[in-house]
Every structure is written in structure tokens, then in C-alpha cells.
Amino acid sequence: MKYRREASLIVLVGALSFLATLFDASFVPANAIDILINSIPTMIISCGVMLVIITGEIDISVGSLLGLLAATLALLSSTAEPGLGIHPYLAIAIVLTVGTLIGLGTGCLVVYGRVPSIIATLGLLIALDGAQDWLMGGGDIKHFPQELRYLGTGTTIPINLILTILVVAGTGLLCHKTALGRRIYAVGSNPSAARLAGISVTTTKLFVFALTGMLTAIAAILWVAKLGNVSTSTGAGLELKVVTCVVVGGVSIRGGRGRILGVVLAVILITMIRTVLNFMDLGSEAVKWQRAIEGVMILVAVTSDHFTQRNQPGGKS
Amino acid sequence: MKKFAYEFFLLGLICVVLAIAAFLDPLFLSSDVQIELSSEIWELGLLTLGMTLIIITAGIDLSVGSAMGLCSVSLGLCMHANLPTGVCVLACLATGLAAGALNGSLVAFIKVHPLLVTLATYGMYRGFAEGLQSATTNAPVDASEGIKALVTGNFPLIQILFTALTAWTAILLGRTATGRGLYAIGHNEEAARFSGIPIAKLKFWIYTYTGLLAGLAAISYSARRSATAEAGLVLELDVIAAVVIGGTSIYGGRGRIAGTLLGVLLIHETRQFVDWYWQRSELTLIVIGTLLILAVLGHRFLFAQDPDTH
Hints:
The complex is a heterodimer of chains A (317) and B (310). Chain A contains 15 helices and no strands. Chain A has 317 residues and is an all-alpha fold. In chain A, 48% of the residues are buried. In chain A, α1 (4-23) runs parallel beside α13 (260-280) and α9 packs across α11. Chain A starts with a helix and ends in a 9-residue tail after the last helix. The longest helix of chain A is centred in the C-terminal third of the chain and has 27 residues, at 201-227. The mean pLDDT of chain B is 90. Chain B has helices spanning 5-24, 31-37, 41-56, 64-80, 85-108, 114-135, 145-152, 157-175, 177-187, 189-194, 199-224, 235-245, 257-278, 281-303, and strands at 141-142, 226-227. Chain B is mainly alpha-helical and 310 residues long. The chains are: A mainly alpha (317), B mainly alpha (310). At the A-B interface, α6, α12 and α15 of A face α6, α12 and α14 of B.
């Protein structure tokens, strides 16, 4: 069955909502929008990382990159010390450019430098984290101009949500309806065959890394706009959450397989787990075990289909 | 000689780092400072031994730091209950073994990709460590005298064990059929299976061994500071970086303990000097990250004798 993974994710999301509804009938209507809004940064970056993983590479630097870009945006646009207070639109343009360039740089390291992507992005993860701390100089940065905050807090039109939906829809179209999308899958499932078919493996990989950089920049902008605060720990650990979502969403870590719908459902599911655990108010004892429960659920999600799909022909793990 | 060309390259790099250090501040090379700063090398060193074996089989273990935190908390619980030192140590090592065995069985027997298994257990072990700590002592536990003596006493057991384990792992890898089996798995798992190499058994064994090493590292950490769920936070990055800088291929099939040791030394000296001289931890991160990428690039362009193994 083609949509088996998506079906099981929908069942899980439904089961979680049902569980929460048992505690309080108003859970779903009251929290649905909140869950979506909380999932925005993970959702946007997951779209990029999904494409990278489909080409058979991986990017674990996105958390640090988001932190660095958020710090850059904060320094450029904040109206209070040590911000420069330049016009927010100009700051946004700079951050988008920097993000795309860093993504492109990562791609060059992988494609031309032949550094394995997990190592190249591990190095970047460490180095960009340091760069973020260095830029921030220790303290938090606050006080952003209204034009910027509006992107994340506008109540009449939730611009961040609309933007996220556009990114997801765009990635879906790119993956499943365009020639470039076919090339991305081809490169991931068999690079030599792709090369022989006249597909430029180099360009395709450069494109997905640059796109991931740009999407991380968008996520960073929306992050700053929503929270109005950047600290040295902004973005820490996000890369693992994103990779977890992409994999739980059914994208093969060996490349070549995966669909946008699964990833979107997985992001919602994983954001929901924490909200539901918070909401159920299981008492102070249970709160302490939240991360452990989350970890067990993710382990179950990651391993479960190995129990059910072992006899599938050609089933790659 | 030619076989160890990369190891000599690393040795040269370490000399360059030390030369820069000596030029900027000769005091750094004095034995007092070196001994004082060396206290942190043991945990990194212990964990890299297991990680080298794992990466040689084309696997990876992201959960070593979290497993270390879990071990440290169980050690702390035993010390809190005033149990004898031996029992504390056993409980800590058993926790490590269990954590490693869980990783190992999922990778070896259920055949889940090691990146996914250890990504999940990375969050899970740290979660259990935090949960266990906040549900019981709710604060770091100071190391008992007995535990401290294992690391800083006249008979520093951890250091002696590290030396012994290094020798044993190096012999295992370089001189035994088991070692050749590990290289074979990393080089071509299909071929290894047809050659009758017990792939599942070997894989299970190396993840479990790494778990045990995480237990030892937790004892070392807890003795120096205190037993806490924070033990080993982000240490996995340094461990992987040291192994890869040491010349072990992330695609598997290539790597040696000698290179790993030099990688540990290079990371250790660089980190300690940057921390010590400039007193800025963020600068250390930038330098280590860059060093990792440069080392791999250097290996590619200077020592690329094997055809593309992607």
C-alpha cells in the first residue's frame, strides 16, 4: 500500500487528539492553531532537510544555522543596544542571502570537496554554534521593529502560517510535479544511473543544500518575529528534531524515497506529543519524565516499521 | 612507513598546534599546566575507542553522551544511598551495558539504521537521566571519596584501564579475525555476510562495548565534578570529530586506533589551548569545527589512495 506510512501517522495523530479530548473536550479546537504555529520552524526546515535526505545526503547543521541567522537578524534590526537598527526589510534580505550562501557553501564542501555530508555539517554545526555565541556576546537581544514582529504576531492574518503553507505546498509541487523533483529522487536512489541519464548530480545537490539554507533563513526570521527574543541557545538541538521528523515521516535515510505529506504529518505528530503531555497535566511527577516519554515514542516510531515491513521485496531499511 | 602516512600528518598537525601555543605562551607546554588540563581527556579518549569500532563498520552512535549522563545519574543514586563503592561502580557500568545493548540489538537484530536508533536513544537516555534525577535527588550528587580515589588517587584506575583498553582494542582491531571482520563489514557488508562473518553478533558486541565505555567515562566525569544528568552533554560531537579527524572513514572499512588517539590528542590540545589562552569558549567551537572539515579535506586531497567509496 503506497500511503501506508501516512495512514499510520494519521491514526497516531487521531489517537493522540482522542486521548487529549478524553481529558478535556475542548482540547482540539482550543489548541489546533497553537500546535500548527509552534511547529512552524520545524516544518519549514524539514521541507529542505527532506530534499537533502532524498538526494542521499544529510544536513545536521540547520539548528546552529538557524541560531546564527537569528542572531544576525537580531543584531542588524534590533532598535536597542547592541543592535544596528537598520530597516527590517533590508535585514531580512541580508539574512536570506547569508542563509542561502551558507547552504551553498555546505553543498560545495560536499560536492566539490567530497567531504561526507554528515561530517561537513557536523563541523558546521560546531563552528556555527561558536559563531552564534561570538556574535551575541553573551546577552539576549530584544526590541525589534513592528514591521518585523508583525510577521510573527499579526493576529488578523497569520502571515507566518500562510508562509509555511506556501513553503510546504511549494516543496510538494517541486517534489512530485516537476522535472527537478524527479532529478532529486533519481540522484538519491542511484547516483550513477542518474549521471548516465544526463542528470547533473552536482547541480542537484548544490540546489537542495542552498534551498535548505534559504528555508532555514525563513524559519529564523519567523522565529525572531514570533518570540521577539534571541539568546545564545536559540536553535540548539533543532537539527535532531528535524531529522527525526523527516525520518518518522517515511523518508528513507539512504535516499531516493519519501513524500511531503508524511513529513508534514510527522512534524505535527511530534509537536503534538509535547503539547498533549503538557496539557494532560499528569502531575508534577510525570512532567519530569516528559523527555523520556517523548524519546520512547520516537524510538518506537523509528523502529516500528522494521517489524511490520521486513518481508517486503527490496525493502531497504 | 607509507601505511602510517596520515598518522604522521596528524603528528605534524599536533606539533604545529603546540608550536603556535609555545610561541604565544610557553607556559602552556609546562608539565604542570599540561597535567592540570589533562583531566578532561579520559572521557573523550574512552568513548572514542568504541566509536572507532562502530564507525569502521559504517555505523555511528550519537547516544554516547546521553548514555554517559544516564550512567552518571545511576552512579549518583547509588552514592546517595551510601552503597559501597564497588556496588556503585557496578551499577554505573551495568547501566552503560544496558544502554549499549539496546542500541546494539536494534541495530544488529532488528536492522534499523544506526543513525536512527541512536538519534532516538540520544533523546531517550538524556530524558531518562533528567527524569530519574529530578524524581529522586533533584540535584547533582557529590562523588564519594571511594569514587574520587578511582580517578585522582594513588592508583588511578580509570587511567590505567584506559591504557589497557586502548592496547586491547588496537590489538583486537589490527591483529585478530574479529578486527578483520569489522573492517569487512564496513567495507562491504554483503560480501562479509557471504564470507560467513557473524555480522549481527559483531555489531551487537561493539555497541554494547561502547555502552560499557560510556559507563567508565561517567565514573571519570562524576569523580572530577559530580554525578549529574548533564554529564557528557554534546560530548558525542567531540567523540565523532576526534575519530574522523583520526582518519577513520565515515563510510566504514578504514581506520586505526593509533589515528584515533592522535585525533583525540589534537582536539584536546587545540581545545585546551584556545580555552586557556583566549578564555573564549565560542572561539574553541569555531576552531574545532573548522579543524574537523579541514582534516577531512586534507585526507581527501593528500592521501586519497582509495577510489570513491560512496
